[in-house]
Prior knowledge:
The protein is an alpha+beta fold. It has helices spanning 13-22, 43-50, 54-60, 81-92, 120-125; strands at residues 2-9, 29-35, 67-76, 100-106. A four-stranded antiparallel sheet has the order 2-3-1-4, covered by helices on one side. The longest helix is centred in the last third of the chain and has 12 residues, at 81-92. 17% of the residues are buried.
Amino acid sequence: MKEIMAVVRMNKINDTKKALIDAGVSSMTALECLGRGKGLVNMDLLKGAEQGYEEAIAQLGQSDRLRPKRALFVVVPDKLVQKTVDTIIYANQTGKSGDGVIWVMPTEDAVSVRTSESGDAVLDEF
């Protein structure tokens, strides 16, 4: 089994949840978070903005460096990993910076708190 963690735009979380449910992945956890990608700040623009140059301020924008995002956590059997990743991409891809990122990580085990079952059987519960 694998854990898939995705960080996506706030306004795309409902589309993502619906797409995952339609794809047969119904259990997930979503959290609000702050983040940024690898986009670099042009230091000349930053210096200009600090000195009060209006053009530099306009190019930097008025938003914080960390932007509101959603972190989505899904644990799926190995056979559903590619389908889950493809579904998240489909629901979130706009072609613009900030679409998000997906990590796929091995998960050794899962245990149901309610039934004490473990392994892939736990994933069938959701």
